[in-house]
Design brief:
By secondary structure, the protein is α+β, with helices and mostly antiparallel strands. It folds into two domains: 225 residues, D-Maltodextrin-Binding Protein, domain 2; 197 residues, Periplasmic binding protein-like II (D-Maltodextrin-Binding Protein, domain 2), CATH 3.40.190. The chain has 18 helices and 15 strands. The strands form five sheets. A six-stranded mixed sheet has the order 2-1-3-13-6-14. α1 runs parallel beside α3, α15 packs antiparallel against α16 and α17 runs antiparallel to α18. Pfam families: SBP_bac_1. Keywords: Signal.
């Protein structure tokens, strides 16, 4: 995922230059219309699965039936293709009118003149207050909004209650700190000689990587802090990276790699199969457990904090609704985005998909409509939004991950010391920004 986003960001920089040089911006062209005179609004998404496509198309059909001015034409494009084709269409002066795009790179498209400035449509705080503040921050560039948050995610600790009972742990008291997490994990380990039958926990399984753990330890601050300063080699991040390395040393790379291969499959997922007792993943991982876990007895909890005196932090991402630069029908596109991100459509998306949505009222309404385990897990994700941080790719350092990740890998492999490696990465990113 991070490699895709890095490639996408660099591609956007090139396409931004092409767009700036293009004279075919489509201005003055007549909008396409249906036979009965409705303006056709092109809406691109990557939701083509048998689960999600009917849901987004139901929302589109409801909107089309609610008014007689426009017809929303939904176009599915595969993941990975949609954004590159969008940028090429912008450069050619023939983009879609609305697109679902990555939330963490909005500022890049704004800077490169690839998305419409929405400030003329959003002229009071009432609109933006509908959405989680952390999400709204990502759609603004130099004080103006260039997209509207659609959906998001957050990460939770999933734990096997049956395994807890077997290990003599209280299944209703998950670990709250890193120290407790380690202690629980050791009790949950099951070995036959030198071979693990069950691993209690390993911090890099699931979807919470080194960057997330370092953020968790450093008061929610990512590699670029809230003031825009590079903060890669802080003592908290160094401590976190050494802590991850200690898990590698204890469990052993051979055992870690033996388990890793099974994480791509739903049915053989080591957590669902009972081979891993605790794992951090997005809230929607619950649907995989529900569909393949055969009534698995599990719980969810916030990600443990580095210590009792620190706040716990999670990490999120998501997608936005955006009007690409050069849309033939920006006013009509905006009206559809308003509908798409309002309470009714967002609630429907949340309940039918079991997905976290950006609209606060819709998220809370979806929680009230769900039942049983669905309600329990979804409620935990909604509450977890209070401690969920997003870290957009900085516009002045689009390739910063490529300067950091190799040094982290070297530390985890035992080839370098954490403090030295992170200081070198910090220096490299600072130089990149200065240049």
């Amino acid at each position: 995922m991070k490699k895709i986003l890095l490639w996408l960001t660099l591609f956007m920089l090139v396409m931004g230059l092409l767009a700036g040089c293009s004279n075919s911006n489509g201005e003055g062209a007549e909008p396409r219309k249906t036979k009965d005179g409705k303006i056709i609004v092109d809406f691109w998404t990557f939701w083509g699965s048998e689960t999600r496509r009917p849901i987004i198309e139901k929302i589109v059909d409801d909107y089309n039936a609610s008014q007689d001015k426009v017809f929303i034409k939904h176009t599915f494009l595969p993941w990975g293709d949609i954004w590159t084709k969008n940028l090429a269409a912008i450069a050619a002066g023939n983009p879609p009118d609305v697109i679902i795009n990555d939330i963490n790179s909005v500022s890049h498209r704004a800077k490169n003149n690839q998305a419409e400035n929405l400030s003329k449509y959003i002229n009071n705080a009432d609109f933006k207050n509908k959405f989680y503040p952390e999400l709204w921050k990502t759609v603004e560039y130099e004080g103006d909004p260039y997209a509207v948050p659609f959906n998001t995610d957050t990460r939770l600790l999933f734990y096997n209650k049956k395994a807890f009972k077997e290990a003599g742990l209280d299944p209703n008291k998950p670990p709250e700190t890193w120290e407790e997490l380690e202690a629980y994990a050791k009790k949950l380990d099951k070995k036959d000689g030198g071979k693990y039958e069950r691993i209690g926990f390993y911090p890099l399984w699931g979807s919470f990587g080194p960057e997330s753990w370092m953020m968790n330890a450093d008061n929610g601050e990512g590699y670029i802090d809230k003031d825009g300063d590079v903060a890669i080699a802080t003592k908290e991040k160094v401590k976190a990276l050494n802590w991850i390395k200690s898990w590698n040393d204890r469990i052993g790379n051979e055992n870690i790699n033996a388990y890793k291969a099974d994480f791509g499959s739903e049915q053989s997922n080591p957590f669902i199969a009972g081979k891993v007792a605790m794992m951090i993943d997005v809230g929607t991982f619950y649907t995989q457990i529900r569909d393949y876990g055969k009534d698995m007895d599990f719980g969810v909890a916030p990600i443990p904090a580095v210590s009792k005196n620190e706040k716990n932090w999670s990490q999120g991402g998501g997608f936005v609704a955006e009007i690409p630069k050069g849309s033939k029908n920006p006013d009509e596109a905006w009206k559809f985005i308003e509908y798409l991100t309002d309470t009714e459509a967002q609630t429907y998306w949340a309940t039918e998909n079991f997905d976290n949505v950006a609209n606060i009222k819709a998220a809370e309404k979806a929680q009230s409509l769900l039942e049983g385990k669905d309600k329990e897990v979804y409620g935990a994700t909604v509450k977890n939004m209070e401690v969920t941080k997003l870290h957009p790719v900085p516009v002045n350092a689009p390739d910063y991950q490529s300067k950091i990740n190799p040094t982290i890998d070297a530390v985890l492999l035992g080839e370098r010391k954490a403090e030295e490696a992170l200081k070198e990465a910090e220096k490299s990113v600072k130089q990149s920004i200065d240049q």
